[in-house]
Every structure is written in structure tokens, then in C-alpha cells.
């Protein structure tokens, strides 16, 4: 959103009492006979949703199901996202160990609608240009299934850090997180991506019911400012899209200046694009907040398929080193062709070793928070696996695992040690069969390596 913050409204009054007059007048004109129904929705139920992470599998290689998420009875699937489900307020899934394990992402239901319109498949090169806090980025990553490239960008430094944390928590292996204005990315990625999501900063009218600040800080001037900013971002996206590629443009606002007019003005500036589809979600029509999306296709006389990702090239000495580092952590077959190192290249940034997606160009000169999947850190000649590696691993890939129930996992997240059987060495700690963190078995004591900054309680 263009404006952020929080303001508490008077709970004794209906929320509709606080709507700006200019906004009400415009919505009356836009909706006609539906306006009263629309207005009543502001004082109706707020719907909450979560999306199961396709990248996360248990010891049997299966995704979670809503039955395994400890939700109260009566959960319902979100119609535009097959892995999305509504949940009740009393469930509080954000406080559950499965949330910390990245088994699901808490996301407003309507916000799940734009990503499926992009039609992402494994192997695509995808850009999420305005990505924080990461709901749509992690949704894109699920669609890629670990194959291809996801560049996820956020201009605001503090929000970019949150984005990076969510990419890590959801176990994404093939994402690069950048912190740049869109215009700074254009020279590096000219005609590079075949799918781009522009979830543009907007006046946030569709979030009035959810976000007090969007309501109290709304103005006609801000709508115009947002529309101008959206035009600049869309122009950058057009430059980075290859011929035959697709942009999905989305907002969480009702303002025609930021929705249909933004799209029409874009087409006027870029006649090589066509509008394939537009979508509006109204809070009085669906179980969610307000959202807009448009599918924009870039023409090409002869559309060529995107080049397949190059095989990972690694010197024999580097491969030997990485095998030595990971030999106490990962099963041998996971380092062979088709294993976890396939489709990437190893690069070190300081003491940290990253698996960088093979399709990623040079990151030199860019502000990059996460150049790929951090495998671990070299510290005084010793290799310590990264928390991000634990979250990205399948239990079947780990040399040693220990599985905790929910109560045990909650204690582990607090930093407590455990008595365990088994071999000494690095051990993948799982909750209900899903990877959560590292522990190190030393003489029957599992030393806790859950990051101190993430511990709770």
C-alpha cells in the first residue's frame, strides 16, 4: 500500500460511519443498486485464510492436509486457491509450531487470487516486483516447485527483511530476494522473465475492513499519487518481460484510476500488450476483502520456449569440499544428479555458502538480501548448516532425523534440549514429520540449534 500504519477506530460505531465522503460518493456511482449491500459488508465478518505450502512434505513425501493443521471443525476451501482454507479466529494458527516449520502461510483469502492467474509452472523465470511481506511470493514459489527462478523484490528495506524471512520459513530453494527500486532492476533483467507479478502499492480501499490506516489515511490525492507510481512500476515490468510473456497486475483497491484506468493507460503506452482478463473481488460478493487483477500478455511473432536451466557446473575440488561439508548432514544420493544441488551453482558470500539458482544472472551491484538458499556457514574450519537449509530439506534427504509432536516442538522452539537415541551428529528436527530446525546429537543429548532470534517463550 502507498500508506501504512495503524489507527484504532471507535469500536462502538459501525465501521461504515468512518468512510470518507468522497469515497462513498464514488462507490455509489460505481455500484448503483449494490451500494447498500457493499456498505453493509464493512460491518460483516472478516474472513481469515491460510495456504498450505506445496514445498513442504512430511517423511512420506506428502503435503499437509487441513485435517492435520489442528483447525477447528468446519474449515472450508478457498475457491480460487486449491491449497487455501478459511479458518476461525479462535484457531490462532500463527502461534503453532507447524507455522514456524513453514507448513502453511497465513494470507488474506482474496490476496490468493492473482497468483493462479499468472499460470506459473516449474521451470519459469518469475519476478515478483513488489513482494513484501511475501504471501504472493511464497505462493509463486509453490507453483514453481523448486524448479526455475523466482526473483522477489521489495523497495522498503525493513519490509524486504520480512520478505526474506518468509522466503526462508517456507523452505524456498530457488528464490533470490532483492531490495531495489524497480527501475534499478531493468538494466540487469531486460527481457529476462516470462512471468511477472506486479502487486502494486495502492490506496488500499479493499483493505478498509482489515487495515485501519488504509481508511484513516485515504484521500483523493493519494489515489492519484498511487496511480502515477503504478504506471512507473508497470513500465519497468514491461521492459523486463520477454516476448510472449505474461504480467499479472493486481491491487487491493476499488479505485478505477488505479485499476481499469491504470491498465488501459498501460496498454496505450505499450501497444504490444493485450488484456486477456480482468477480475474484481468485492467484499459483498465473496468471502474476502476487495481485490483487482488483470492479465496482460506481451505479443511475439514467434514465441520461443524459455531456455531450459543450465546444468550446475562445479569444479571437482568444490564438489569435494561441499560433499565433505554435507556428508554428516545429507544423504549421499541427495548430492548426486537430480538431488538438492541440481539446478544451482555454489557461491560463497563471506563465510556463508549459498546455492544460487542456475538461471540467476550476476548479482554484482544489486542490494541482495538472499542470493539463493543458504546451505551453511564456515566457522573456524567447521561447517554449520543454516536454519534455512533445515526448513528447505525434506525429511527423506537428511542423514538423521528426530520427529517431535506438537507439544515437544513448542518446547524445542523455546530453546530446550532433549534426550535422544541415535548416532552423533547433525540431526534434522521435525514436527509431525515436517522439517523444523537443526539439532546436534552429542552423547544422547540433542543440543538445540533453533536460532535464538526466532525462539519464543
List its traits.
457 residues; alpha+beta; Rossmann fold; Archaeosine Trna-guanine Transglycosylase, Chain: A, domain 4; 3 domains; 8-stranded mixed beta sheet; 5-stranded mixed beta sheet; 13 helices; 21 strands; disordered N terminus
What does this structure look like?
This protein has 457 residues and is an alpha+beta fold. It has 3 domains: 111-298, Vaccinia Virus protein VP39 (Rossmann fold); 309-383, no CATH class; 400-457, Archaeosine Trna-guanine Transglycosylase, Chain: A, domain 4, CATH 2.30.130.60. 25% of the residues lie in helices and 25% in strands. It contains 13 helices and 21 strands. The protein has helices at residues 21-31, 35-41, 97-100, 114-118, 135-144, 157-169, 182-185, 212-216, 220-240, 260-269, 316-326, 387-392, 406-413; strands spanning 48-52, 76-77, 84-87, 104-106, 125-128, 149-153, 175-178, 193-199, 241-251, 273-281, 291-298, 344-349, 352-357, 368-370, 373-379, 382-385, 401-404, 418-419, 425-431, 434-442, 445-448. The strands form 4 sheets. An 8-stranded mixed β-sheet has the order 10-11-9-8-5-6-7-14, with helices on both faces. Strands 17-19-20-21-18 form a 5-stranded mixed β-sheet. It is globular and about 70 Å long. Mean pLDDT is 91; it is low at 3-12 and 308-312.
Amino acid at each position: 500500500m502507498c500508506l501504512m500504519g495503524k489507527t484504532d477506530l471507535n469500536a462502538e460505531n459501525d465501521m461504515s460511519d468512518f468512510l470518507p465522503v468522497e469515497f462513498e460518493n464514488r462507490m455509489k456511482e460505481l455500484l448503483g443498486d449494490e451500494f447498500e449491500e457493499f456498505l453493509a459488508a464493512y460491518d460483516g465478518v472478516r474472513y481469515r485464510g491460510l495456504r498450505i505450502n506445496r514445498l513442504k512434505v512430511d517423511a512420506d513425501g506428502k503435503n499437509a492436509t487441513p485435517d492435520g493443521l489442528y483447525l477447528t471443525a468446519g474449515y472450508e476451501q478457498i475457491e480460487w486457491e486449491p491449497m487455501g482454507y478459511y479458518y476461525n479466529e479462535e484457531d490462532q494458527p500463527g502461534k503453532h509450531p507447524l507455522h514456524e516449520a513453514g507448513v502453511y502461510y497465513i494470507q488474506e483469502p482474496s490476496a490468493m487470487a492473482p497468483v493462479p492467474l499468472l499460470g506459473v509452472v516449474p521451470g519459469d523465470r518469475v519476478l515478483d516486483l513488489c513482494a513484501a511481506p511475501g504471501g504472493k511470493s511464497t505462493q509463486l514459489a509453490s507453483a514453481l516447485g523448486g524448479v526455475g527462478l523466482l526473483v522477489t523484490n521489495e523497495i522498503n528495506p525493513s519490509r524486504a527483511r520480512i520478505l526474506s524471512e518468509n522466503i526462508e520459513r517456507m523452505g524456498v530453494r530457488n528464490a533470490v530476494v532483492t531490495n531495489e527500486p524497480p527501475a534499478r532492476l531493468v538494466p540487469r533483467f531486460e527481457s529476462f522473465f516470462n512471468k511477472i507479478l506486479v502487486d502494486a502499492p495502492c490506496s488500499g480501499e479493499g483493505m478498509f475492513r482489515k487495515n485501519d490506516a488504509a481508511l484513516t489515511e485515504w484521500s483523493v490525492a493519494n489515489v492519484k499519487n498511487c496511480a502515477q507510481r503504478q504506471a512507473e512500476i508497470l513500465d519497468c515490468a514491461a521492459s523486463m518481460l520477454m516476448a510472449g510473456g505474461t504480467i499479472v497486475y493486481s491491487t487491493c483497491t476499488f479505485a478505477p484510476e488505479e485499476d481499469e484506468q491504470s491498465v488501459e493507460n498501460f496498454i496505450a503506452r505499450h501497444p504490444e500488450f493485450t488484456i486477456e482478463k480482468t477480475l474484481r473481488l468485492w467484499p459483498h460478493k465473496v468471502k474476502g476483502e476487495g481485490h483487482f487483477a488483470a492479465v496482460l500478455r506481451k505479443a511475439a511473432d514467434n514465441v520461443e520456449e524459455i531456455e531450459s536451466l543450465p546444468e550446475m557446473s562445479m569444479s571437482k575440488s568444490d564438489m569435494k569440499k561441499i560433499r565433505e561439508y554435507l556428508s554428516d548432514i545429507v544423504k549421499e544420493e541427495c548430492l548426486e544428479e537430480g538431488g538438492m544441488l541440481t539446478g544451482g551453482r555454489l557461491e560463497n558470500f563471506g563465510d556463508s555458502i549459498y546455492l544460487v539458482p542456475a538461471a540467476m544472472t550476476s548479482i554484482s551491484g544489486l542490494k541482495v538480501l538472499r542470493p539463493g538458499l543458504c546451505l551453511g556457514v564456515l566457522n573456524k574450519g567447521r561447517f554449520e548448516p543454516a536454519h534455512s537449509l533445515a526448513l528447505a530439506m525434506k525429511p527423506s534427504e537428511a542423514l538423521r532425523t528426530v520427529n517431535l509432536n506438537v507439544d515437544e516442538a513448542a518446547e524445542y522452539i523455546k530453546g530446550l534440549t532433549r534426550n535422544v537415541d541415535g548416532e552423533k551428529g547433525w540431526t534434522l528436527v521435525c514436527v509431525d514429520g515436517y522439517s523444523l530446525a537443526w539439532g546436534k546429537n552429542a552423547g544422547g543429548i540433542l543440543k538445540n540449534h533453533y536460532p535464538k532470534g526466532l525462539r519464543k517463550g
